[in-house]
Amino acid sequence: MIDSSSLLRIEQLSHRFGDKVAIDHVDWKLDQCGVVGLVGPNGAGKTTLFSLIAGFLRVQGGSIEVLGGAAPGSRSLVSRVAVMPQDAIFARDVSIVDQMLFLRALDGVTGTIARQEVVAALESVGLADQLDRGAAVLSHGMGKRLGVAQAILGSPELILLDEPTAGLDPANALQVRDLIRSLGKKALVIVSSHNLLELQDLIDEVAVIVAGRMVASGPIDEVTGSARRFELRLGRVISPGELQQIRDEELVRGVSQDGTQLTVDLDASADGGLDAALDQLLHRLLKLAAPPRQLREGASLEEAYLRLTGESEQEAAPLDDRTEDDRTEDDRTEDDRTEDDPDESDAPAAAKTSDDR
């Protein structure tokens, strides 16, 4: 059983690559199962932090305790910690089922039990009909779902997912999000993603890392703080004068308009908190005879992210919105690589941690 007081404890963690500081005295403590987001700009240290937690890199400074006090990579963590890299690579000409069975064998699970676990994992991501096919015939989205499946083989208690829905169509992304929510009921799931609006509706807690330093962590409401963003659809287009009346409200920080759509940033720090700010906004809209037809919380996490990282809207755009010139080598999919790039597809991705790998 997991010691719920210490699912993950990181103290003064530091890591360098030569002269480059990748992780700078990070403290982070997670006490209970659930879904936690890890966000930050490209190059902030997210992948390095995942690699240290998983035991892929040796700890240089500080300490990490996993699932009750074990050091990363310890034998006691075999089958208990799992990782999905951003671009997991699988053998192109070996059947998916054989690769997944191989991964279970590395953890000491074979035979009927291993096959049942493999089938269950593939069914959970909609790939049960691809068992006997090689990875070469899978689309990018199917390969991404296969990466999720290998990360949830067995019953891992700590799961690290790097961009699990990037490149997926809406239906498959929804399936993966539902799976992550289900996993979070029995395990600690840490998700790194640039899709902040999607992440906001998925996670219980969030940590923001910038230039190797963790600048904020905690429950999402605590990190987003007093700044809350809401998206509204009105029954009519309001005039510039009416828009100004909304801006003049004391608890309204900002308003943008696109036809009948309004994006409103509220200040929830006053007495009464968010309820008071929403009440003030809705009261003004009713006085203008423009009650909202729809109202939902918008990208409050994105607003907090921009504030904490100091990035502009353009810099904080999701990966899919960047131009080809903006993308780094790490962001390129296998389909983007030319024939001159090295072929790394001859071996399955061993994603679970173990001293035996």
Overview of the structural elements:
The chain is 29% helix and 25% strand. It is of the alpha/beta class. A hairpin with a 2-residue loop joins β1 and β2 (20-30). α2 crosses α3 (111-124) and α3 (111-124) packs across α4 (140-151). The two termini are 24 Å apart. The model is unreliable at 312-357 (pLDDT under 50).
Topology, element by element:
Elements: E1 8-17, E2 20-30, E3 34-39, H1 46-54, E4 61-66, E5 81-84, H2 96-106, H3 111-124, H4 140-151, E6 158-162, H5 170-183, E7 188-192, H6 196-200, E8 205-210, E9 213-219, H7 220-224, E10 227-234, H8 240-247, E11 252-258, E12 261-267, H9 273-287, E13 292-297, H10 300-309
Parallel strand pairs: 3-7, 3-8, 5-6, 6-7
Antiparallel strand pairs: 1-2, 1-4, 8-9, 10-12, 10-13, 11-12
* Main sheet record: 6 strands, mixed
Widest β-sheet, arrangement of strands:
5-6-7-3-8-9
Radius of gyration over all CA atoms, rounded: 22 Å
Derived from helix and strand composition plus strand pairing, the structural class reads alpha/beta
Terminal residue distance? 24 Å
Task: Provide the β-strand percentage band.
Answer: 15-25%
Q: What is the count of helical runs?
A: 10
